[in-house]
């Protein structure tokens, strides 16, 4: 009987000790030092507990693991948080469950650098660091491995921005504190979903994803009205097929790094850069997209009209007038010049 009492007392003592250690582990430190703590996208709760312990924000890894086991429905959000050492585990995890989001609206037809300006402003990023990261070859190769629509075309050193044309224009909810990689890959995930809708058409095309998005980007910048898109697409393919220079002003603007509202100079038109299709000697597509096209332009690049047009001219309202011969084109220029 005495042995039973001793055993029971020992068990109660151990249980009490475990419970005591558990609740001790939930309390915070006396110090009120602030620590910047990051939860990476995709991090498990166990990883978060380990990182909290390594950053000396919680007293006990054991208590943390028991706590998340007992609270299976607990969720933590990726982001960067400012935590105090005196908060204790429960309060810390409550903070990590508070998701603050902001919206980024990427407008179709805008350039990569315009998107980056907006992302850096809203996400409080250093622009130079972001541009360096998004042109880093190792990072780009990791994206190529992850996304089927990306290939070695984006590693071409002649590209101004490797991911130009690949960031699908839409409105995105971004968790405050998300890394630039997490934001870019969230956008690329959307691009992937969109392109998957046209997977069969891409497979039937003689052109690569990179080439189709390049064509779509030209269509996007050359057109205002939806009904013009497939016809401009047809003109592009027609010129490619007859080895005629595309002669598209929008590519010259991009090559010169000028806004479409600025004036082109003769120097811009004569500049031999890998985007300037205004040069008569420039046959084929630019080295890459010149903006980020919307779905209508991507669809038009995959489904050109069945016409035989070679030329087009925009009137003062942006409506395009198409011609099959140069003489017809000259008539349109005289008729709609503004």
User: What is the count of DSSP helices, taking H or I runs of 4+ residues?
Assistant: 15
Pattern of helices and strands: HEHHEHEHHHEHHHHHHHEEH
- What portion of the residues fall into strands of 2 or more residues? 5-15%
Helix content: 40-55%
Mean pLDDT: 89
| Main pleated-sheet profile | 2 strands, antiparallel
Please, could you describe this protein's structure?
This protein has 338 residues and is mainly alpha-helical. It has two domains: 2-96, Dna Ligase, domain 1, CATH 3.30.1490; 101-307, no CATH class. It is built from 15 helices and six strands. Strands 1-2 form a two-stranded antiparallel ribbon. Helix 2 (45-54) runs antiparallel to helix 3 and helix 10 (209-222) packs across helix 14 (295-302). The chain is elongated. 29% of the residues are buried. The mean pLDDT is 89.
List the helices and strands and how they pair.
Blueprint: H1 2-26, E1 34-39, H2 45-54, H3 61-70, E2 79-84, H4 89-96, E3 101-105, H5 112-123, H6 127-133, H7 137-146, E4 171-175, H8 180-196, H9 199-204, H10 209-222, H11 226-241, H12 249-255, H13 266-270, H14 295-302, E5 311-314, E6 320-323, H15 326-336
Antiparallel strand pairs: 1-2, 3-4, 5-6
Please summarize what this structure is.
The protein contains 15 helices and 6 strands. It has about 350 residues and is mostly helical.
